[in-house]
Design a protein that fits this description.
By secondary structure, the chain is α+β, with helices and mostly antiparallel strands. It contains 6 helices and 2 strands.
């Protein structure tokens, strides 16, 4: 992660929103539901997607693994890596937007 990419104001807001009762519940729910999501995808995917798919990962988080995972459910995968960690939209918003714009034409 690039700590300089996230402003003090944003960090303060995240801390404020997470500090109250139940504030961390939405964050933990993402991870609690991982196995439900895996089961759902396994049941719904009957064949690989043939449409173009873009897999964008942070070099310091998953890197090439995102491509490997995407290829499990799609045949036509374009892989892009950004010089960042887990929070692509926060750490590299302009680069992420540019990749998505180019991909969607």
């Amino acid at each position: 992660m690039d700590p300089s990419a996230i402003s003090e104001d944003l960090l303060d807001e995240v801390v404020r929103g997470s500090a109250g009762p139940g504030g961390l519940r939405p964050i933990f729910d993402v991870y609690r539901n991982d196995f439900k999501n895996i089961d759902f995808v396994k049941k719904k995917i009957q064949r690989k997607l043939t449409m173009p798919v873009i897999a964008i990962g942070g070099v310091y988080f998953m890197d090439g693994e995102i491509h490997r995972v995407a290829e499990l459910f799609a045949e036509n995968v374009t892989f892009e890596a950004l010089d960042c960690g887990h929070c692509l939209a926060l750490e590299r918003p302009k680069q992420l937007a540019g990749l998505l714009r180019n991909f969607m034409g």
